[in-house]
Write a structure and sequence with these properties.
Elements lengths: L3 H5 L18 E5 L5 E5 L2 H4 L12 H9 L10 H14 L4 E5 L2 H4 L9 H16 L3 E7 L5 H7 L7 H16 L5 E6 L1 H9 L14 H29 L2 E7 L2 E4 L5 H28 L4 H7 L8 H7 L6 E4 L3 E6 L16 H4 L3 E4 L15 H15 L5 E5 L9 H5 L2 H19 L4 E7 L18 E4 L4 E4 L1 H12 L1 E5 L14
Parallel strand pairs: 2-3, 2-12, 3-4, 4-5, 5-6, 6-8, 7-9, 8-11, 11-12
Antiparallel strand pairs: 1-15, 9-10, 13-14
The site of 4-nitrophenyl beta-D-glucopyranoside has 12 residues, from loops.
Keywords: Carbohydrate metabolism, Cellulose degradation, Glycosidase, Hydrolase, Polysaccharide degradation
GO molecular function: beta-glucosidase activity
EC number: 3.2.1.21
């Protein structure tokens, strides 16, 4: 039987610089490049509230949360009314960059037609407030809150009609805000939109697809919408506005399970690679290489739509940089190799997951966050290097989200979030190690500035570096907020080995 012990021997050890006492205190300072971009991130539906104010239309998350979630975003962090206080807090923490998303149904209540002046006014005010406090805005156009009308009329991202609608919406945003917004992200994590929204049904609009066809079709339309919006920006706005535009994709790292049999080890390696392609290559290959990965084409057949030659040209090179969201890692075995350690994880079934023929497993000794996600800083290092090798994005890689949920039942618990501090410290240090090996990482955004509406899990999961009391809307910075402040101020992180998280070198101690 394969065990954790034999996994570890195949992982590359990380290098730690010994501390000054020579006795292995193992603390060292990792310096970042002078122009490195540090910040935090949020998303409109997760924090704004004010669901029926300012002429806002309904989004698919209003509908879905009412029908299928423990909570709604009706009030959330009430950021719509409290943005000035939030921006001041950001400034007081010394944060200089902020990634937020625009709510499409605030700009176009029914998803088409002229801009809603009140919605535009809100984002004008937010952007001006940020700039007045010395904070640079980075704006995501689509962080999952599709206007409900587009779902009702066209089946959301299953409908080709949503592509020109997104183009129109993007144009309105570039025209209104592009004089002050110099970094744009078209989509946040289309993987989640498509897999969770049209495959498993965990996210809005709650559609399911046993054979995966809807997953691939919605992904195809997201890609075409991304390309159309980038084309509009480049032709109509970029020459004068001189900003950058890209996309944010999410991926776990998939570490192949080791095996003493060379053939089986190769199967696991291929399965791990496939899982990364299905997560990241699905979107990044069309954007950096002009088409879907060949492995996907071969295994999905006609369920994976095809691009025309014209569409391939439009897609290729359509991201000035790679935005990457990363939260966790898994070990992967080829699904065909039996069940020798399958009790560690869930075998995948059918459709989008079955196509990958890989099974994700957790290591029993890995620390877990309150989401149940494994804490594996060295997986981040490997993922960044994988992205660098496969895509070498000309404008670099921006880590647009990384963070963890911690159970914080009380304010007292929240302000001592040492687990989050250790998590962030470990991941930032791992990112630094990737940079030393050639990963062109230009920025890092902690998820999230505030505790917020964690989608289908509502307010039960807290990702913020600032606590939100949902009864009073009081904001209280946690220890992690002070940690980020000091990282920003020193442009460095103190690397200290944390006994809770196994690095590759210590895994065999498990
Ligand atoms: C991201 N997964 O979602 C989103 O961009 C955020 O809005 C969200 O709050 C944050 O991460 C934390 O969940 C993800 O299943 C949802 O691997 C699911 C996954 C990854 C990211």
């Amino acid at each position: 039987m394969q065990t954790a012990v034999s996994i570890a021997k195949h992982l590359v050890p990380r290098t730690f610089v010994e501390g000054g006492d020579g006795a292995g205190s193992e603390v060292t300072t990792l310096k970042f490049p002078a122009d490195f971009v540090w910040g935090t991130a949020t998303a409109s539906y997760q924090i704004e509230g004010a669901w029926d104010e300012g002429g806002r239309g309904l989004s698919i998350w209003d509908t879905f949360s009412r029908a299928s979630c423990p909570d709604t975003g009706d009030v959330a962090c009430d950021h719509f009314h409290r943005y000035q206080e939030d921006v001041k807090l950001m400034q007081s923490l010394g944060l200089k960059n902020y990634r937020f998303s625009i709510s499409w149904p605030r700009i176009q209540p029914t998803g088409r037609g002229p801009a809603n002046a009140e919605g535009v006014a809100f984002y004008h005010a937010l952007i001006d407030c940020l700039l007045a406090h010395g904070i640079t805005p980075l704006v995501t156009l689509y962080h999952w809150d599709l206007p409900q009308a587009l779902e009702t009329e066209h089946g959301g991202w299953l409908g080709r009609e949503v592509v020109p609608a997104f183009e129109e919406y993007a144009r309105l945003c570039f025209a209104a805000f592009g004089d002050r917004v110099k970094t744009w992200l078209t989509f946040n994590e289309p993987w989640c939109t498509c897999v969770l929204g049209y495959g498993t049904g965990e996210h809005a609009p709650g559609a399911t697809s046993a054979d995966g066809a809807k997953v691939y079709l919605s992904g195809h339309h997201c890609l075409l919408a991304h390309a159309a919006a980038v084309d509009v920006y480049r032709r109509e706005f970029q020459p004068a506005q001189r900003g950058a535009i890209g996309i944010t994709l999410n991926a776990n790292w998939n570490e192949p399970l080791a095996h003493s049999d060379v053939a089986i080890a190769a199967n696991h390696r291929d399965a791990a690679e496939r899982m990364t392609l299905w997560a990241l290559g699905w979107f990044a290959d069309p954007i950096w290489k002009g088409d879907y990965p060949e492995e996907m084409r071969a295994r999905c057949g006609p369920r994976l739509p095809s691009f025309t030659e014209e569409e391939k040209v439009l897609l290729k090179g359509s991201s000035d940089f790679l935005g990457l969201n990363h939260y966790s890692s898994d070990f992967v075995q080829d699904s065909g190799d039996g069940d020798f350690i399958s009790h560690w994880g869930k075998p995948s079934k059918g459709g989008y997951f079955g196509d990958q023929h890989g099974t994700a497993l957790t290591h029993p000794a890995w620390a877990r966050t309150d989401m149940g996600w494994s804490v594996v800083p060295w997986g981040f290092e490997k993922l960044l290097l994988w992205c660098q090798r496969r895509y070498s994005p000309a404008g670099g890689i921006y880590v647009t989200e990384n963070g963890c949920a911690v159970a914080e039942p009380t304010k007292e618990a929240a302000i001592k979030d040492d687990f989050r501090v250790a998590f962030l410290n470990g991941y930032v240090a791992a990112m630094h190690q990737a940079m030393e090996q050639g990963a062109d990482v230009r920025g890092y955004f902690a998820w999230s500035f505030l505790d917020n509406f964690e989608w289908s899990l509502g307010y039960s999961k807290r990702f913020g570096i600032v606590r939100v009391d949902y009864d009073t809307q009081e904001r209280t910075p946690k220890a992690s907020a002070r940690w980020l402040s000091s990282v920003v101020a020193s442009n460095a992180v103190q690397l200290a080995r944390d006994a809770r998280f196994m690095d590759a070198a210590t895994m065999h101690a498990a």
